Amino acid sequence: MQKANENQYLQLHQHYHYLIQQGALKAGDKLPSEREIGEQFSLTRITVRQALQTLEADGLIYRMNRKGWFVSPPTLSYNPSKWQSFVEYASSQGFTPNTEVLNQTLVPADTNMANVFQISKGTLLLHLHRRRSVDGRPILIEHIYINPCLLPNIEHEELSQSLTQLLRRNYGETYHSMDLSFKSTALPTTAAADLGIPTGLPGLHIQRTNYRPDGVVLELDYEYWRHDAVTIEINMKGE
Amino acid sequence: MQKANENQYLQLHQHYHYLIQQGALKAGDKLPSEREIGEQFSLTRITVRQALQTLEADGLIYRMNRKGWFVSPPTLSYNPSKWQSFVEYASSQGFTPNTEVLNQTLVPADTNMANVFQISKGTLLLHLHRRRSVDGRPILIEHIYINPCLLPNIEHEELSQSLTQLLRRNYGETYHSMDLSFKSTALPTTAAADLGIPTGLPGLHIQRTNYRPDGVVLELDYEYWRHDAVTIEINMKGE
DNA sequence: CAGTGGTCTAGACCACACC
DNA sequence: GTGTGGTCTAGACCACTGT
User: Fold this and answer.
1) CATH of A76-232, one of 3.30.200.20, 3.40.1410.10, 3.40.30.10, 3.20.70.20
2) pTM of the model
3) Which of the 48-67 residues on chain A come under 7 Å of nucleic strand D at their beta carbon?
4) Is residue A2 very low, low, confident or very high in pLDDT (cuts 50, 70, 90)?
5) CATH architecture of residue range(s) B8-71
6) Under an 8 Å CB criterion, which residues of A touch B?
7) How far is CA B177 from CA A153, B163, B237, in A?
8) DSSP per residue over A188-237, as a string?
9) How far is B85 from chain A (nearest CA, A)?
């Protein structure tokens, strides 16, 4: 019943914030159940959940659907200016990366895609839908569109590997420049489902367009990241 | 009482999502009060709030403290690779930008700052705490640290203006390169308070380090953005 | 099966904004 | 003042996980 300086959910938030920062709770540790926490602090489950959701927004904890709340591991650092593949930068940071191809189809280009790739509407594009994980935790959903005319037989390659490396090795293609767009937004329902997390959680949406040296678009990439899984690092030279 | 295909809060979410996308609700429009919405759809306030918070996570609506919920305006596009000032890129996108200096002090460098600026611990740094708005809506809190030894008398300048332009005009300094780091995280309590929004909302944290041509650090900048106010755009050349 | 989080009801009081 | 969102109580049932 205390109406002290602080709201109760913020006090509970600070409690766990402290435990995690001090290392009393470590990455991957499971928190007590919401009901247990409620009993321990004489709080309603709703209040407990508000505290947990605030910690989740901080990126300090995450939930596995109906399994419980867990302390978040450190974030992956993603540096587009290094032109490294996911496997390269995840491994070099001590994570064990994994890629799954969820779907792989040829789809006709709509008006927008036709514009981007400078092809006529209806031309078939390779659509690659992948899920990438580190240490067994899914953190990223990719939707990649590639113009197969530029890369004959690419659809018969093993597409769970690094596209960067695949293109270099088999087709001699080399990325020349890319446009990136970052937006913090809730994960779309489908991406959240693919990641196994509830709809509406904050996420990071990245759109990437890769160009060949001659300016032709090689690859269009929509990425949906867990908001707490990644830090973007970029080094810019100018001006 | 319907336990149909969809949760009730997701149905309500879709309802407003549709209204906003169709333009029936426009940027800046106020939504009905939580209690009114609850009556209209026979839902509890908690369920209504869950739907509203999901729309907020999408960036479609935002709240003004105890005033109500409003439809979000379009995002500001921030392109660090263009080396433009806030005023330049906000104006060119049709927004009316504004900058307020919340605080301006000389602070002794701690160990970390001393390392970054390659000065001895305790040397005085200029700390600039600013709030930036577009069309009257605060969207960004800045904490800037500058080594005043490199820029004599800078503390007597009008510091609500663009630092980029100020440095160019008065000191001949020109940025040469910068390191950027982006992280999606909840806004710290103080930043949320400065922005007039509740603690714990998702936000975008940007850390920027600006270097002189000789590699000396000119400026260290911590930025906290509303998550729904900005899209980061970057063009990279390589490799 | 029991335990977990996910959703929801039907209220309550508070602090603050606006009039 | 009244009305708003902010916080909180004390329950409930459901869907799914792991045994």
Assistant:
1) 3.40.1410.10
2) 0.90
3) 50, 65-67
4) very low
5) Orthogonal Bundle (1.10)
6) 10, 13, 46, 53-54, 57-59, 75, 80-81, 83, 174-186, 199-204, 227-228, 231-239
7) 41, 15, 14
8) PHHHHHHHTS-TT-EEEEEEEEEE-TTS-EEEEEEEEEETTSEEEEEEEE
9) 13
